[in-house]
Amino acid sequence: MSDMMNVSSNPHIRSKVSTDKIMLCVVLALLPAAGFGVWNFGLNALWQILLTIAACVISEALYELFMKKKLTIFDFSAVVTGLLLALNMPPAAPLWLGPMGGVFAIIVVKMLFGGLGQNFMNPALAARCFLLISFPGIMTNFECDAYTGATPLATLKAGGSVNVLNMIIGRTSGTIGETSMIAIVAGACILLLLGIIDLKIPGSYIITFVIFYGLFGGHGFNSYYISAELAGGGLMLGAFFMATDYVTRPVTKLGQIVFGVILGILTGIFRIFGASSEGVSYAIIIGNMLVPLITRFTAPKPFGRGGERI
Amino acid sequence: MNKCVERLHNGIIKENPTLVLMLGMCPTLAVTTSAINGLGMGLTTTVVLALSNMIIAALRNIIPDKIRIPAFIVIIASFVTMMQLLLQAYIPSLYKSLGIYIPLIVVNCIILGRAEAYAYKNPILPSFFDGLGMGLGFTISLTIIGLLREFIGGCSVFGHELSLFTPIAIFKMAPGAFFVLALLTAIQNQVKLTGEKKGRDVSKIQSGCGSDCMQCAVGDCKDRVMAADNEKEEA
User: Fold this and answer.
1) Which domains does chain A have, with CATH numbers?
2) Among the four A41, A152, A243, B220, which has the fewest Cβ within 10 Å?
3) Is the minimum CB–CB distance between B173 and chain A shorter than 8 Å?
4) What are phi and psi of B116, to 5 degrees?
5) What DSSP character marks residue B19?
6) B157 strand-pairing partners
């Protein structure tokens, strides 16, 4: 009875889930893809990943030290940003490129807008697009020691044929972390089982893309082309790890589905009608900018509102 | 003469049109891909600004109040046309690279803003120096923005190629213009804030007028603004 008399202000129920635990889980879930990338592409990929993460964490710490703000590097969000960015880099890129993108992601995209929770677009993707625009030659050169020639998607776009099984396993050229569909889906399963992400955004994203590709891709609903488009490029990595970013996705359930549909359509447009064979990064950051609008139009009605007045 | 020096200082530092007043953003962001372009745009605008300010100040008692804006535009557009023809004749390379932004000087809000805020109610000489100061302030900001964008985005200074590092091409494109402008404005604000902390009087360094018309004792614009407000209320 004495417990019942204990008066306190809300919140009354607290969860043990905290930002750093969620971020740590995301890092763990990304490890299969990162590990496969290192095994596939060699030590240069490992250095790229480590240096990019280090650049993100150090630039966040220095910014907060310099601006006399609370140190937030132990919530692991900078590690996630660095890891995601590194997984989006071509394997043979020079080692200064990833850290440069990391500094841009943390300082310009994240900290200048107020730090974690305030950034209006995914920092890792914004940095990737920054690098892609600044250094188009380096960022689209996927030749490395292990592989020569174009990525499977570029081959497919040029009318060539690809080996879908190799694409699903990941033995193809591409960015460090995007090639292996199996590793990415394995990591995504961890997050799904832990309840950190759900299937609303990735599901609606992938289904919309498949339908869009079937209708406008010029090959109909042909399983060979559709599975190659799904396994190639950054679609899986983007759908499970970047579109589901807590900060830059809509908060309402309906909004998340609308968000996924928009991403699917944009990716389809960029891949089919665009000059480049890939368009997941641009699709997601354009989607990020539509999020406030989506959230506004899909806000649930408060209890007691709506219906007829008597 | 003292007033003329004060107008120059006001235009270049205290009310720098680009970094403090935030006027004329369209040419600022669009043509500053290189230092030469920024310098050319700035100097062209300076000439138009100083001369149109002078003519408007000379005609300020003749121009009727109700049609002053069209009258300003005619005067400004005449000077812009003259500048455009001169540039086309003597500096064709600059004319080519500035392109559509030369005729667009007509609608540059710095020029119309200075005509309305200063030249229309001040004598000829201070108006000329006001235009000159504002124009030089614009030129300096544009040249600095152009210089930074050219250096980072193309690794060259005033067209001289250096090969120190791999250029970051995004600085030559539209996003780079926003990055550099934001950086310079932030530095300007920081200087202002540290000055304030040290106890210097910086209250005069303000974004444009921005003050309450009821409290204002300086400008004679308040009668016009309040008359316009009254008309609105009656309608």
Assistant:
1) 19-297 (1.10.3430)
2) B220
3) yes
4) -70, -45
5) T
6) B160
Interface predicted TM-score (ipTM): 0.79
pLDDT digits (tens, 9 = 90+) for A140-151: 888 777 777 778
Chain A contact present for B166, CB below 8 A: yes
| Range(s) of the domain holding residue B81 | 2-234
Record the tokens describing residue B208, joined without a space: 């444009």
pTM across the whole model: 0.82
Residue of B nearest to A96 (CA): B166
Q: What 3-state class would DSSP assign to B161? A: strand
Please name the residue of chain B whose CA is at the shortest distance from the CA of residue A129: B170
Q: Is the dihedral of CA A262, A267, A268, A269 positive or negative?
A: positive
Interface A:B, Cβ pairs < 8 A? 15
Q: How far apart are CA A75 and CA A107, in angstroms?
A: 16
Q: Residue B207 has what pLDDT?
A: 39
Tokens describing residue B150: 């050219």
Tokens of B108: 């540059």
What is the distance between the alpha carbons of residues A40 and A19, in angstroms, rounded to a whole number? 31
Q: Which of A61, A113, A68, A67 is nearest to A82 (CA)?
A: A61
Nearest CB to A135: which of B166, B171, B173? B166
Closest-CA distance, A134 to chain B, in angstroms, reads 4
Closest CA to A264 of A214, A198, A221: A214
Nearest-Å Rg of the Cα atoms of chain B is 19
Number of structural domains, chain B? Answer: 1
How far apart are the CA of B190 and the nearest CA of chain A, in angstroms?
13
